[in-house]
Write a structure and sequence with these properties.
five-stranded mixed beta sheet, two-stranded antiparallel ribbon, single chain, 7 strands, alpha/beta, 9% strand
């Protein structure tokens, strides 16, 4: 399924390009695989889809399965203190153009960079690298490969990283339901940055090394789900840490809760992201990590029992 360079490891993982909302749903994954931007369907309810988006990086491979297991299960990230609130506020205004979506998303990236920096520093990871936000339409050539369908991507390579967002996606949602578009954009960027945290701490590459070493598709898919569910949890933890300032409340919070509870694997497609129930569990665990503060330690999906990452 994945092609790796003979000279460098390019790890791939899915991105939470979640779609679907009460009375505002999108076609299933097949529409995205065909390269088209899914359009909201006004009459459907309870339908959601996750795209086959990819996260890629070029970190060197670690030495052994045991070493990689220690990285994902006992990472110093899990021993850090509460995630700081960035105190950044949501950009308010119509998400009716790609430029408006970029301004909205860039504020999110800036906020997450500020919020995650102390935690990454405490974990011993590089906390200076801020991903570059790139808007595109339906196809883009990146360092990590070609994006051939309109969905969100994270690409980390060396001391650089990019987050790719198809602006038309959010614009189309905004035409149908402005609050949904805000929830979708917020959650997608948060998940993307969750992959950046994984990349900075070595979890992203170590998890992919483990997946390549495992035998059988079932074991490989479970590892993929652990990685994806953790990215959602980490993204939600940042949202939760800053919920008073963004703010994540009222209609936006209601919409966000629907998004995270209706995202995951679709029948007939590889089970590589987790069930709706488990995606909701880990997203909620991150958001509500504690009554007063959020901690990355609540997002250790790699130590969870298989049923919690099914």
């Amino acid at each position: 399924m994945f092609n790796l360079s003979s000279k460098k490891l390019r790890t791939l993982a899915g991105v939470a390009a979640v779609a679907g909302f009460a009375a505002l749903a999108v076609p299933t994954q097949a529409a995205q695989a065909a390269g088209g931007v899914p359009q909201p369907v006004a009459s459907e309810t309870g339908v959601a889809a996750e795209s086959q988006a990819k996260v890629q990086s070029a970190q060197p491979s670690t030495k052994s399965y045991a070493t990689d297991t220690a990285i994902v299960k006992n990472n110093k990230l899990y021993k850090t203190g509460a995630i700081a609130a960035s105190k950044c506020k949501e950009v308010r205004g119509p998400l009716s153009t790609a430029n408006a979506v970029k301004a909205y998303d860039q504020t999110m990236v800036n906020c997450m960079w500020a919020a995650w920096a102390p935690t990454l520093k405490a974990s011993g990871a590089n906390y200076h690298i801020k991903p570059t936000l790139v808007m595109y339409t339906s196809r883009a050539k990146t360092y990590c490969g070609v994006i051939s369908q309109p969905t969100s991507y994270y690409c980390g390579h060396g001391a650089k990283a990019e987050i790719y967002i198809p602006g038309a996606y959010v614009v189309n949602f905004y035409k149908q339901n402005p609050v949904y578009a805000r929830a979708y954009a917020t959650n997608t960027i948060a998940h993307e940055y969750g992959h950046h945290v994984q990349y900075m701490t070595g979890i992203l590459s170590a998890s992919w090394n483990r997946q390549y070493a495992l035998s059988g598709s079932a074991a490989k898919l479970e590892e993929n789900r652990r990685r994806e569910l953790q990215a959602s949890c980490l993204g939600s933890a940042m949202i939760g840490a800053n919920k008073r300032y963004y703010p994540m409340s009222g209609a936006l919070y209601t919409q966000w809760k629907y998004v995270v509870s209706h995202s995951g694997d679709i029948k007939g497609y590889p089970r590589d992201h987790g069930s709706f129930a488990n995606h909701n569990f880990w997203s909620t665990a991150g958001f509500n990590a504690s009554s007063s503060a959020t901690y990355a330690k609540y997002c250790n999906t790699f130590n969870a029992v298989s049923s919690r990452v099914s």
